[in-house]
Amino acid sequence: MNLKKDERTCLFIDGSSLYSTSRSLGFDVDYKKLLDFFASKTHVIRAYYYAAILDTEDYSPLKPLTDWLSYNGYFLVTKPAREFTDATGKRRVKGNMEIEIAVDMMEMAPHIDHAILFTGDSDFRRVVEAVQRQGTRVSVVSSMRSSPPLIGDDLRRQADNFLELATLGANFTRRQTEAPIRTRTAAPPVRHPADQLSEPEEEDPLT
């Protein structure tokens, strides 16, 4: 994994991306074990977790997780997700944290040696390159073993290291889930757990 004990390291976790990737591999993440695992391998100075949360009167399934994270070593970054009805009348949810993650990575780069980014979204390639130019090493955590693979080629090539979640997962698995759903076409990863409100076989062109 090329993790070094003396490196100042920061974790940047795209919550929706890690959720969808781990589910596709058949496990849930134990976030206490995840933080303990990386803290045992390198000098973690901060762990960011990013989530877009649907702002409605209904109970959010993410609230227990985000509450726990904020009291247990994670720096929580949230914003409201946007709910809308598409042209076919389907209920959709849109919310990504790309700007928030990019800003924090750029701000932290002068103060750390290693950034570990949990996402497979190739839109992050440019910010990874910018952080590298400041002398910060960048590793990306996602999966090539999911079906379809959830790591973009551009991002994987740009990163200094690619960490396979299917291999790392044994260190912070909470429980086994149902077998991964195999899809015939390369659909993008689910951007937010609330997307499950829509039929899973239909793609959301706006995410």
TrEMBL record:
Q: Which Pfam families match?
A: NYN
- State where composition is biased (Acidic residues): 198-207
What GO MF annotations does this protein's record show?
Answer: RNA nuclease activity
Q: Where is this region: Disordered?
A: 175-207
Q: Domain of life here?
A: Bacteria
Q: Indicate the segments forming the NYN domain, all copies.
A: 8-165
* The protein, known as: LabA-like protein
Q: Which organism is it from?
A: Acetobacter tropicalis
**Upper taxonomic lineage:** Bacteria, Pseudomonadati, Pseudomonadota, Alphaproteobacteria, Acetobacterales
